[in-house]
């Protein structure tokens, strides 16, 4: 116990702390799941279906079983009783049609790449060798491939059904209507009025299929040799995975421990309970030996869930002077072959966001989810919200073009003014805070908006071959998934709370346990900053533990930009509870009244005196427990669970300048500026990284990425040679800045940032490309805006056409001397 | 099995390997050098980049037997013996040039190679020099900053007058 | 990710390598830099029983001058070719094409001969060697033979090298003082070209004295834009004449349709790229 010295207050929140986690990652001291090697560990290789839809007639495993090093070969039939099932946690309607999903199918495969059998061998090489020897006979079935055709197929019209026994490809129809919900007017009336005396825009946009393409391929190790079965997996959702393993295999949850060690990116792509995890679990239990399965990149692209894949039919009504009066959204969403963990919920997450920052008086949304014989789809960075933002931000540019006005002017006419917050939207959400004017003004200034517009006019007038376009996207999103009550209303299978614990160690160090599991977001650092500030302890003394169900008893894991706003709030509350517990002890030790105790900078002081005691000293004292007040339990550790009462709504203004070579259709990014309002920033360095990374993923949807299937249902863009991720040489440096209107729904005033860049950038880029050539008669270009599409749009009108479903081989079996291979020419994707 | 002798991160090693074993598998599975990782099967991603006799290569695209007689440096051998980080490692941390860290070993090894060949690259030269390395997290912005920062600091170390351009992480 | 089993030999002379080829015949594959072959083996698109590694044959490596030609050893890595002063001086088109080929790591391992023997029509070197009238020296049981670039490329991934032969070197007639330009169109940087045009030209007194133009990914082999060359020889080195001539760039091509563009599109864009490549080459030639 020492006298309180005047300490300068060092605020951690807002500091650009270098990341704690980096020391290991930059030196190669990493624990990716594939790095784990256990004594006696066996290796798995999967046998996968080459067909999109087929009956499995026979599986001959004899040759594989004879192959050197092979311990066993298992089919769906062999594991029928133990393999469990892949679950859908969110039936979006009570009558949703949901096909059963067994990890290894017994008699029928429903997409190319589906696992059919598993080979277990002493080494990964031997497992792969033997997998080549498994002979599977298939009877091909008609495959439902095209989304629109699949939506129309019935047994009567003979259209292909993804699961013939279900009798339909339609899974669920989810609707929202502002008139019915009482949150706004009748959209059909608004459209009817606008048809006679106003503007009606009718557009159809395609959200192409994307692949999350995290850099670390998925990997799973299962060790059944202890009392508990330990599962290491490259997953975003250790807790949900443990629940699903237990719930579908009958193994008690208490006998399963799931660890997500270092995880190399996820972006929603590792938010899944995968067949491979289930198979590894079943095989390990069957053999009583640890097993490992690591997918190849090709397997990952083929079978890890895909994202987006929607057709969006949109009708916007406005008055002649540009005030929006109604928005009607009709979506078709491709689920792929199965309804994945969140599955049909992804487009529904977008349902509340099509109205965006604008004051639409009437709104209607409907989404039909459809089963096809393609890889299943689920969350990919942004999940539902990028689709919504794309549609509305493209439409606002179209409306501006129709009116002959600047796109920013039209937005301003319609957006919620800063003095109107809190604002209840036509979709029924309450936006707590925001200032679209401020973010836009800052973005215009940083971007040099007026100068670029002037240059654009000059180039147009001169008829330059390279034209300049400026794209705008003033986005908002809802993040911080999610209030459990809201999730309950939406029929989601779980809550949206998050748990945290703060343990005060006797040595004065602090251990923090969070249910939010990181995979690159820098939680160790940002969470340490929050706790350091709250408890007044040094940043270095805080250790963040996560990603292990044994260490972290409860958690809802990481997705939907929820870690900071939900997980962070839980932390704050746990820390506050620690202080509450410590306070009576402090009073006791200081021989003062509890009412006179105040806490600042890590010390409890007695008001009006210089007496004080550090929190860490109380931790030691309460550990020893020699001198505690009567009735006070030893220990000041605390747990908290936080269930958010509302979402939060980051927003921002993104401006993009694109150059388009009108002779070739090639595009080049010239400048990209964004000013995001993400509330209070814990660590600006980490935030900048999240924004940059998000921007490039969104830009990549606009320009490069597309998962393309051929007419037989084979994924053509099945390797990194054909699924085009951009490199450093394809991207530019960004100008980013922030405005701040603190969120009112959490203590720290933070808003989510993980998905903002991705959500906002796609429409900004496409708007810019279209703007560059609008004077040539173009009003849409389908994504990705390939040189060919852009060129077609300029020269033949239309939005540029589909993508040829064929890839040029560069690695060919006939490489070198002999052989004569025809180039595949596939069909066009509709 | 074929006998190979090589030096990996300064350590002499000698092993019998199957000719089909890739250098990256040799590093990971035989030597336990799991700092070097595998991100693809078409040699597009660069996550497996190491130095073979002083030049960057994709270790998934080299057979272990081809490396017989050579010296290999991996991310694990880049720091000094006393643990002093290589300036490029330092720069990646300083500029937040990594998030999940999966691409990082390859990015760092390729950045070192780039700076060996061109100590003062322009932004465009940095971007093109890293075109064989994919990163899904960072959007490359801060990776480029890191290489610029390292270039400045390497130059400052080499020329005490320190004419190098200062880059501050953004 | 793991190739099927094979046996491995690493001869140190061309003779030993030829002997190994004769012995293992059909079951063997030559390994140069491995940058195309190893992905093939890893994805198990091919599973030879024997791999004959040319990497230990020193005589196949290096660039030298031989009278009117420069000679590039088949096993010379791209990075060496790309920085070689002889190549830059006498075959600038190769220097420019190599600079854009794949990425730094692959250029360290991949070889000049390997890339040409691989004969991917989308490869970056086929166009330049055709434009430069290179000759291919191929060693076999009965000594060596020389094949012109026009005859070397037979079909998709198929060359004039037969199963018991080895490409040892490529001879490129000196194009000293010629301007050169390589115009490559990719969607992302780590990709093979959608289409590429390699042009090299000599200008005398404002007139195009001679010109060579090679095309990548416009057919099953690298092509030569003969029509454009013919139309330009002896013409004034001006944008107008180039523009008119390049309208013939798609003559006789049969480009693929794939994810990155349809045949129609390629046939259009090759004309624009051809014009740009030729203009670049003329500029380099002092026009
Ligand atoms: C990710 C990636 C991107 C690439 N991008 C490009 C690109 O943009 N442009 C481009 O041009 N290339 C590209 N390449 C291919 C690269 O250029 C390869 O280096 C080249 O194609 C093969 O050369 P290699 O020496 O590695 O040959 P290898 O892969 O060893 O051999 C290729 C084939 O040629 C045969 N062969 C090799 N040498 C001889 C010989 N001397 N005699 C007879 N047969 C022989 C082999 O048996 C084999 O069939 C890329 C490769 C990768 C992996
Ligand atoms: S693993 Fe080697 S380049 Fe991807
Ligand atoms: S930091 Fe995650 S892939 Fe680069």
Automatic annotation (TrEMBL), chain A:
List required co-factors.
Mo-molybdopterin cytosine dinucleotide
Annotated protein name in UniProt: Carbon-monoxide dehydrogenase large subunit
> By its UniProt entry, which InterPro entries does this protein fall under?
Ald_Oxase/Xan_DH_a/b, Ald_Oxase/Xan_DH_a/b_sf, Ald_Oxase/xanthine_DH-like, AldOxase/xan_DH_MoCoBD1, AldOxase/xan_DH_MoCoBD2, AldOxase/xan_DH_Mopterin-bd_sf
Is Oxidoreductase among this UniProt entry's keywords?
yes
GO molecular function (one): oxidoreductase activity
Where is the stretch described as Disordered? 810-830
Recite the lineage of the species.
Bacteria, Bacillati, Actinomycetota, Actinomycetes, Propionibacteriales
* Aldehyde oxidase/xanthine dehydrogenase a/b hammerhead domain: residues covered: 27-142
Pfam families assigned: Ald_Xan_dh_C, MoCoBD_1, MoCoBD_2
Q: Which UniProt keywords apply?
A: Molybdenum, Oxidoreductase
Where along the chain is composition biased (Polar residues)?
Answer: 815-830
Automatic annotation (TrEMBL), chain B:
Iron recorded as keyword: yes
Reading the lineage from the top rank, the first entry is Bacteria
One family name in Pfam for this protein: Fer2
Question: Single GO molecular-function term?
Answer: metal ion binding
Question: 2Fe-2S ferredoxin-type domain: from which residue to which, for each copy?
Answer: 2-78
Functional pathway = Alkaloid degradation; nicotine degradation
This protein is called Carbon-monoxide dehydrogenase small subunit
Automatic annotation (TrEMBL), chain C:
Keyword flag Flavoprotein: yes
Q: Which InterPro entries match?
A: CO_DH_flav_C, CO_DH_flav_C_dom_sf, Diverse_Substr_Oxidored, FAD-bd_PCMH, FAD-bd_PCMH-like_sf, FAD-bd_PCMH_sub1, FAD-bd_PCMH_sub2, Mopterin_DH_FAD-bd
Family matches, as Gene3D superfamilies: 3.30.465.10, CO dehydrogenase flavoprotein, C-terminal domain, Uridine Diphospho-n-acetylenolpyruvylglucosamine Reductase, domain 2
- Highest taxon of the lineage: Bacteria
Which SMART domains is this protein grouped with? CO_deh_flav_C
Record bears the keyword Flavoprotein: yes
Q: Which residues form the FAD-binding PCMH-type domain?
A: 1-177
* Keywords linked to the UniProt accession: FAD, Flavoprotein, Oxidoreductase
Q: Which PROSITE patterns match?
A: FAD_PCMH (PS51387)
Q: Name one GO molecular function term.
A: FAD binding
What is this protein's name? Carbon-monoxide dehydrogenase medium subunit
Origin species, per record, is Nocardioides terrae
């Amino acid at each position: 116990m020492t006298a309180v010295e005047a300490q300068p207050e060092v605020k951690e929140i807002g500091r650009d702390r270098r990341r704690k986690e980096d020391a290991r990652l930059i030196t190669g001291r990493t624990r990716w799941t594939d790095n784990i090697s256990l004594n006696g560990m066996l290796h798995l290789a999967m046998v996968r279906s080459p067909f999109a839809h087929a009956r499995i007639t026979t599986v001959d495993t004899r040759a594989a079983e004879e192959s050197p090093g092979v311990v066993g070969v298992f089919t769906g039939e062999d594991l029928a009783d133990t393999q469990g099932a892949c679950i859908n946690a969110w039936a979006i309607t009570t009558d949703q049609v949901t096909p059963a999903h067994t990890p290894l199918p017994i008699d029928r495969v429903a997409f190319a790449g589906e696992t059919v059998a598993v080979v277990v061998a002493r080494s990964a090489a031997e497992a792969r060798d033997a997998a080549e020897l498994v002979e599977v006979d298939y009877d091909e079935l008609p495959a439902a491939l095209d989304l629109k055709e699949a939506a129309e197929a019935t047994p009567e019209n003979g259209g292909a059904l993804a699961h013939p026994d279900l009798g339909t490809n339609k899974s669920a129809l989810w609707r929202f209507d502002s008139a019915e919900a009482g949150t706004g007017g009748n959209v059909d009336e608004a459209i009817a009025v606008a048809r006679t005396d106003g503007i009606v825009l009718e557009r159809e946009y395609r959200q192409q299929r994307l692949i999350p393409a995290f850099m670390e391929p998925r990997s799973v190790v299962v060790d059944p040799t202890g009392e508990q079965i330990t599962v290491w997996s490259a997953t975003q959702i250790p807790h949900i995975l443990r629940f699903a393993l237990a719930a579908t295999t009958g193994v008690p949850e208490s006998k399963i421990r799931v660890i997500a060690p270092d995880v190399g990116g996820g972006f929603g792509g590792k938010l899944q309970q995968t067949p491979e995890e289930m198979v590894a679990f079943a095989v390990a239990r069957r053999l009583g030996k640890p097993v490992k399965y690591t997918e190849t990149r090709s397997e990952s692209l083929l079978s890890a869930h895909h994202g987006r894949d929607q057709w969006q039919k949109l009708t916007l009504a406005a008055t002649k002077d540009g005030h929006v009066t109604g928005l009607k959204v009709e979506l078709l969403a491709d689920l792929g072959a199965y309804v994945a963990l969140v599955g049909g919920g992804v487009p529904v997450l977008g349902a509340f966001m099509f109205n965006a920052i604008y004051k639409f008086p009437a709104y209607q949304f409907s989404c039909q989810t459809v089963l096809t014989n393609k890889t299943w789809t689920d969350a990919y960075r942004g999940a539902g919200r990028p689709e919504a933002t794309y549609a509305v931000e493209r439409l606002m540019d179209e409306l501006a073009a129709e009116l002959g006005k600047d796109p920013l002017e039209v937005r301003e006419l319609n957006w919620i003014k800063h003095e109107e917050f809190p604002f209840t939207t036509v979709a029924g959400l309450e936006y707590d805070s925001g200032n679209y004017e401020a973010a836009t003004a800052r973005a215009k200034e940083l971007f040099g908006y007026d100068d670029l517009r002037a240059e654009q006019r000059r180039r147009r007038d001169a008829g330059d071959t390279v034209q300049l376009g400026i794209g705008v996207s003033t986005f908002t999103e809802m993040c911080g998934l999610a209030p459990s009550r809201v999730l309950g209303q939406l029929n989601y299978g779980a809550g949206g709370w998050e748990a945290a614990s703060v343990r005060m160690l006797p040595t004065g160090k602090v251990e923090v346990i969070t249910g939010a599991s990181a995979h690159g977001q820098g939680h160790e650092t940002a969470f340490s900053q929050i706790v350091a500030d709250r408890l007044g302890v040094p940043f270095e003394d805080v250790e963040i533990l996560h990603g292990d169900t044994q260490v972290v008893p409860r958690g809802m894991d990481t997705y939907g930009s929820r870690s900071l706003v939900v997980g962070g709030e839980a932390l704050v509350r746990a820390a506050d509870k620690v202080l509450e517990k410590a306070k009576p002890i402090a009073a006791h030790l200081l021989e003062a009244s509890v009412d006179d105790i105040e806490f600042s900078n890590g010390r409890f002081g007695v008001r009006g005196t210089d007496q004080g005691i550090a929190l860490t000293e109380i931790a030691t004292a309460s550990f020893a427990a020699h001198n505690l007040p009567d009735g006070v339990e030893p220990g000041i550790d605390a747990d908290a669970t936080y269930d958010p009462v509302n979402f939060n709504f980051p927003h921002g203004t993104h401006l993009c300048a694109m150059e388009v070579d009108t002779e070739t259709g090639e595009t080049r990014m010239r400048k990209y500026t964004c000013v995001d309002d993400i509330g209070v920033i814990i660590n600006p360095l980490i935030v900048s990284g999240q924004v940059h990374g998000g921007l490039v993923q969104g830009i990549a949807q606009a320009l490069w990425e597309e998962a393309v299937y051929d007419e037989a249902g084979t994924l053509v863009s099945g390797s990194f040679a054909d699924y085009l991720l951009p490199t450093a040489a394809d991207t530019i440096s960004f100008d980013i800045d922030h405005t701040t209107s603190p969120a009112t729904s959490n203590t720290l005033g933070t808003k989510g940032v993980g998905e903002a860049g991705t959500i906002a950038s796609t429409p900004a880029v496409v708007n810019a490309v279209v703007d560059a050539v609008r004077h040539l008669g173009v009003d849409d270009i389908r994504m990705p805006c390939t040189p060919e599409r852009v060129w077609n749009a300029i020269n033949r009108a239309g939005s540029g056409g589909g993508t040829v479903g064929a890839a040029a081989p560069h690695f060919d079996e006939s490489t070198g001397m002999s052989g004569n291979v025809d180039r595949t020419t596939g069909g066009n994707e509709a | 099995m074929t006998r190979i002798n090589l030096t990996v991160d300064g350590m002499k090693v000698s092993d019998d390997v199957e000719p089909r074993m890739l250098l990256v598998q040799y590093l990971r599975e035989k030597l336990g050098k799991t700092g070097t990782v595998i991100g693809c099967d078409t040699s597009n991603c660069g996550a497996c980049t190491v130095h073979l006799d002083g030049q960057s290569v994709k270790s998934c695209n080299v057979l272990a037997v081809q490396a017989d007689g050579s010296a290999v440096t991996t991310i694990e051998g880049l720091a000094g013996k006393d643990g002093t980080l290589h300036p490029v490692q330092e720069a990646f941390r300083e500029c937040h040039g990594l998030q999940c860290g999966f691409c990082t070993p390859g990015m760092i090894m390729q950045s070192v190679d780039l700076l060996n060949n061109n100590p003062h690259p322009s932004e465009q030269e940095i971007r093109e020099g890293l075109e064989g390395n994919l990163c899904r997290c960072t959007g490359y912005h801060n990776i480029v900053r890191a290489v610029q920062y390292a270039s400045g600091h390497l130059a400052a170390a080499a020329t005490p007058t320190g004419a190098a351009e200062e880059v501050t992480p953004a | 990710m793991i190739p099927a089993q094979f046996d491995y030999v690493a001869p140190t002379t061309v003779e030993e390598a030829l002997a190994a080829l004769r012995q293992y015949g059909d079951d063997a594959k030559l390994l140069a830099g491995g940058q195309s072959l190893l992905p093939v083996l890893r994805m198990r698109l091919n599973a030879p029983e024997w791999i004959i590694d040319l990497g230990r044959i020193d005589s196949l490596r290096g660039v030298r001058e031989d009278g009117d030609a420069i000679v590039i050893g088949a096993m010379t890595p791209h990075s060496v070719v790309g920085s070689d002063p002889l190549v830059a001086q006498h075959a600038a088109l190769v220097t420019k094409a190599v600079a854009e080929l794949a990425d730094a790591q692959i250029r360290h391992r991949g070889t000049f001969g390997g890339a040409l023997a691989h004969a991917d029509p989308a490869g970056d070197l086929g166009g330049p060697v055709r434009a430069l009238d290179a000759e291919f020296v191929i060693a076999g049981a009965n000594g060596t033979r020389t094949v012109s670039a026009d005859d070397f490329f037979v079909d998709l991934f198929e060359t004039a090298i037969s199963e018991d032969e080895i490409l040892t070197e490529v001879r490129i007639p000196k194009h000293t003082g010629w301007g050169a330009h390589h115009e490559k169109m990719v969607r992302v940087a780590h990709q093979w070209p959608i289409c590429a045009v390699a042009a090299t030209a000599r200008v005398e007194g404002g007139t195009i004295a001679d010109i060579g133009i090679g095309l990548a990914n416009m057919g099953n082999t690298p092509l030569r834009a003969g029509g454009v060359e013919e139309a330009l020889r002896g013409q004034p080195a001006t944008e107008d004449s180039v523009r008119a001539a390049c309208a013939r760039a798609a003559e006789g091509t049969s480009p693929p349709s794939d994810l990155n563009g349809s045949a129609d599109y390629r046939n259009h864009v090759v004309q624009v790229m051809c014009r740009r490549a030729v203009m670049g080459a003329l500029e380099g030639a002092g026009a």
